[in-house]
Each structure stands twice: as structure tokens, then as C-alpha cells.
Specification:
CATH class of the largest domain: Alpha Beta
Mean pLDDT: 94
Distance between the termini: 28 Å
Shape: elongated
Order of helices and strands: HEEHEHEHEHHEHEHEHEHEHEHEEE
CATH architecture of the largest domain: 3-Layer(aba) Sandwich
Radius of gyration: 23 Å
CATH topology of the largest domain: Dihydrofolate Reductase, subunit A
Low-confidence stretches: none
CATH superfamily of the largest domain: Dihydrofolate Reductase, subunit A
Strand content: 15-25%
Largest sheet: 9 strands, mixed
Number of helices: 12
Length: 371
């Protein structure tokens, strides 16, 4: 259904508003809403600001007050028609006397998919659904929510910093600092909005990282170490800070019981996979994180761990920082290792969302295309 110019502009504004909830509303989706009067003028707006708080439609309708009656509501996501932490938004829309609703994306949840639209139409409300670029933008907003809802696992962001010739360290292992300070600030902002950050035992042993966000985000950040044989040093920063920062050690079925006990005594939570094949263990771990309702997982490497996620087809988004430096050397590690691909036609491709300059670095963000 064709939208008016005013409705198109309002949807674009609603998409902007929705992003205000990033890092605050998960595991709920980011949603924005705008109320238009009969002339197409935006008279009120709102967004889902925090998990458990009012949904975007309710916030916008509250801002509009009695002026909402007989007018149009533009919302990025199909209004819910079920009781959750808040009452159904469809009830609020009908009570406000809205005559037309413009929806950006359908609700991917089984209890919501299409039902909100049907509820409104059955009550006599004119409902239009966006198409084309607006629909794509609205669906992008809820992509992590859809991943958790449909596939029961978090949205996986693969992040790395590399030189212009594709290396993440020198042949001697030195990696600090490839990226500039501006890039590192962006990484900490990313850490602050995700639910969990993951590294492999190789990175934990080589770098002894703390894996925290500075400043911290609104929710506790779960630190995950994939450590098949429970080798994480008890004197390292991850183990010694485990009582202060939640830490999950994902071990394999062959991990020694005494090593698991020592990690638990240090304050780490230990989760043991049943799968013996590496790719299967990663998928099993993602399912466990999904069971815990974690929406975003940031994989920070190193090359072996990033390669494992790519080999298993488990990466959804890439955030790469490319420094204007040449490292060289055939023994210098590349950003992504693993098994790789045998034919170029099988290479994962990115749909680039943005490219920007950060203090001389090139910051590339894109989605892994699904075939």
C-alpha cells in the first residue's frame, strides 16, 4: 500500500527515534512511533526507552493526548496484541481513537506475527504496511530480536582491528595498538550495548584481557571464554575479576573435572558442551546464550575463534577497523583463520552499511549476506 509523503517522513523519523533504545531495551526490539494529524503534521513521538517500560506506541499516544483521536499512528513494528510486561498496544491504539496505523515491519514472534494488524483491522482501523526501503530499514532495526525469536540465538557481531594488509599482529605476536584511540572508543561503546563478549582461550592466554566496557553499559556484560580444556589461568585478570564481572567459561566434554572445580571456586560459571566437533560446540553455546535471552554477542577474536564462527556460518554482522599500517611477514597472523573456503564463489559477502574515518582508521560495518 502506498504511503503518503508525510507518512514516509514520519516512518523515517520513527526509525531514528527507535535507535534511542539501543542497548537499553533488549531482549525487546527497538521501536519508534510518531502521531500525525489530519494535515500530515507530526504532533507527537515516542520510542521504547527501556526493557519493561512503555512501548513506543503508548509513549507517542501519551505525548499526543486527546489530539491523537481520529489521526494516524506511524510505528516501526507491528503493535503487540498480547499481555507481556505491559498491556497490548493494540488496546491503547483503539482506546486513543486512532483511525489509521502505518506499520514498518511485521512482528516475527509467533504470538504476534500478523495478529496485531488483524486485531486493528477487525476493529475498523485502516492499517498500511511499508514496502521497499522503509520496510528493509524497519526490519533491520529488529534483526537481533528476530534472530533470538526465530533461531533462538543471539545476533553475532564479529569485530577485529587489522592493518591495511590484513594482519592483526606482527610475526612476534605484538598487537598493541593496531587501531587508533578513536577506534578503541567506538569498541568500548559497542561493548557497552551488547549482552556478552566472547574470546577464545588463545586470546585469553596471549593478551590476559579484562573484557569490560569503559564506561560500563546499562546491563551487566557477560564475558565468555571458549576454553575447551579449562586452561584459563586462575591468576589471570579474567579469573581474578570473575566475582566482580560475570564470567562464563565454555568448556568441552573432555575438560578435566578438577580444572572446572578450580574455575568455579574462583567465581567463574562453567558451562560444558556435549558436542565434540568445534562448529557444533559453538552452535550449542549460542543456543545456551539464546536460552538466557541474550540478544547480542560480540566476538572479539582472535583469528582462530573468528574463523570458527565464519566456518560454522554463525556471523551476522562485521565491524572491522582497518589501520593505515603495513605489517607484512608471512608469519604475521591474519584477521580470520579457521578452515576458510575452497572456492571464491563460496566466500561470505558483506552488505556494507557504513564506512567512516576514525582518526585515520577506516571503520567498516556490514551484514553477512544470507544466500
Amino acid at each position: 500500500m502506498t504511503l503518503s509523503d508525510a507518512e514516509t517522513a514520519a516512518m523515517q523519523r520513527a526509525i531514528e527515534l527507535a535507535r534511542n533504545g539501543e542497548g537499553l531495551v533488549e531482549p525487546n526490539p527497538m521501536v519508534g512511533a510518531v502521531v500525525l494529524d489530519a494535515s500530515g503534521t507530526m504532533i507527537a513521538e515516542g520510542w521504547h526507552a527501556r526493557f519493561g517500560g512503555p512501548h513506543a506506541e503508548v509513549a507517542a499516544l501519551a505525548a499526543a493526548g486527546p489530539a491523537a483521536r481520529g489521526n494516524t499512528l506511524v510505528v516501526t513494528l507491528e503493535p503487540c496484541c498480547h499481555h507481556g510486561k505491559t498491556p497490548p498496544c493494540t488496546d491503547a491504539i483503539l482506546a486513543a481513537g486512532i483511525r489509521r496505523v502505518v506499520v514498518g515491519a511485521g512482528d516475527p514472534a509467533s504470538h504476534g506475527a500478523g495478529h496485531g494488524i488483524v486485531r486493528l483491522r477487525d476493529a475498523g482501523v485502516d492499517v498500511a504496511v511499508a514496502e521497499g526501503a522503509l520496510k528493509e530499514q524497519a526490519e533491520r532495526l529488529i534483526a537481533p530480536f528476530a534472530m533470538l525469536t526465530i533461531n533462538h540465538r543471539p545476533w553475532v557481531i564479529a569485530k577485529w582491528a587489522m592493518s591495511l594488509d590484513g594482519h592483526v599482529a606482527t610475526a612476534s605476536g605484538e598487537s598493541r595498538w593496531i587501531s587508533c584511540e578513536a577506534s578503541r572508543r567506538v569498541v568500548h561503546r559497542l561493548r557497552a550495548r551488547v549482552d556478552a563478549i566472547l574470546v577464545g582461550i588463545g586470546t585469553a592466554l596471549a593478551d590476559d584481557p579484562l573484557l569490560t566496557a569503559r564506561p560500563p553499559g546499562p546491563r551487566p556484560l557477560l564475558r565468555v571464554v571458549v576454553d575447551s580444556h579449562a586452561r584459563l589461568p586462575l591468576a589471570g585478570r579474567l579469573a581474578t575479576s570473575a566475582r566482580e564481572h560475570p564470567t562464563l567459561i565454555a568448556v568441552g566434554p573432555a575438560a578435566a573435572a578438577d580444572r572446572i572445580h578450580f574455575l568455579q571456586e574462583a567465581g567463574c560459571e562453567v558451562w560444558q558442551a556435549s558436542e565434540t566437533e568445534p562448529g557444533g560446540r559453538l552452535a550449542e553455546l549460542l543456543s545456551e546464550l539464546g536460552r538466557r535471552r541474550l540478544t547480542h554477542l560480540l566476538v572479539e577474536g582472535g583469528p582462530t575463534m573468528l574463523g570458527g564462527f565464519f566456518d560454522a556460518g554463525l556471523v551476522d554482522e562485521v565491524q572491522a577497523f582497518v589501520a593505515p599500517k603495513i605489517i607484512g611477514g608471512q608469519n604475521a597472523p591474519a584477521a580470520v583463520s579457521g578452515q576458510g573456503i575452497g572456492r571464491m564463489e563460496n566466500a561470505p559477502r558483506l552488505s556494507i552499511e557504513s564506512i567512516e574515518s576514525l582518526g585515520g582508521d577506516c571503520f567498516i560495518r556490514g551484514l553477512v549476506a544470507r544466500t
